[in-house]
Amino acid sequence: MSDLGSASRVFFSFPRVTDPRRHRDYNAWHVGDHQPENRALPGVLHGDRWVRTPACRTASEVDDEAAFTGADYVAVYWFAEPARASIAEWLALGASTGEQGRRPDLAWTERRFTGFFEPVASCVAPGSPLSAPAVPFRAHPGVVLEVHRGSRPEAARDLAATPGVVGAWAFESRTSTVADQEPPAWTVILAWCAEDPLAVAAAMSPPAAGLVLRTPLLAVGADPAGWSWFDDAPR
């Protein structure tokens, strides 16, 4: 049973594809190998990923932190308790697939930011019949992501009240490639959208102090015909 409400740790990754010719290869590997293997682990409650297309980047109202600004994708994994054992199993899978030659992405991706976070708040949109743990499982066109400096769990409530949002979760950093400290260095908010994430982001309230990134992200999907976001990028 995938009870996201019981999770004490999630993992965020903000990868950038360094070779514009490899976006389709990257998504084919992720959809056809990496993500299914990760989701199949008994210690992984849920995993999802989104793309920051050029249109999403243009629609980003705030984009002020080097650790995040270059990312083309965002991935998240939720871990079952006991989290330490689940994470160890997940890391072992990553090591073994690398040894098997199943990590072609390492040659043409970089991750300026990765980290383990703790879920600290969740809420649903007014009138929604869903529970907060069900929101990430709902089919959706994408999300709006915010990154705040320090602790800002209340920002999830603000985003959940935006028209077109189904619900939102807040996560505070515990360890990352940028910081490992208390109090948390970062709060990440994910707001799941029922409508076009670009339109939802445009309707949000003005950014608060401490917000370093607000960007719409689109669901990646499994259809290669839809992976054309970066086809016109310079090569």
Describe this structure in words.
It is a single chain. The chain has 235 residues and is of the alpha+beta class. 24% of the residues lie in helices and 34% in strands. The protein has an eight-stranded antiparallel barrel with strand order 1-4-2-9-6-8-7-5. The chain is globular, with a radius of gyration of 17 Å.
Major sheet size, sense and barrel closure:
8 strands, antiparallel, barrel
Structural class: alpha+beta
Shape: globular
Helix proportion: 10-25%
In round numbers, the mean pLDDT is 94
**What is the number of E strands?**
9
- Bin the strand percentage: 25-35%
Main sheet: strand order: 1-4-2-9-6-8-7-5
Radius of gyration: 17 Å
**Succession of helices and strands:** EHEHEHEHEEHEEHE
What is the first-to-last residue Cα distance?
Answer: 45 Å
Low-pLDDT stretches: none
Structure annotation, total helices = 6
Keywords:
235 residues, 6 helices, 9 strands, 34% strand
What is the element layout, followed by pairings?
Blueprint: E1 9-17, H1 23-40, E2 44-51, H2 54-58, E3 62-63, H3 66-69, E4 73-79, H4 83-99, E5 109-124, E6 142-149, H5 155-160, E7 165-176, E8 186-193, H6 197-202, E9 211-219
Antiparallel strand pairs: 1-4, 1-5, 2-4, 2-9, 3-9, 5-7, 6-8, 6-9, 7-8
Briefly characterize the structure.
24% of the residues lie in helices and 34% in strands.
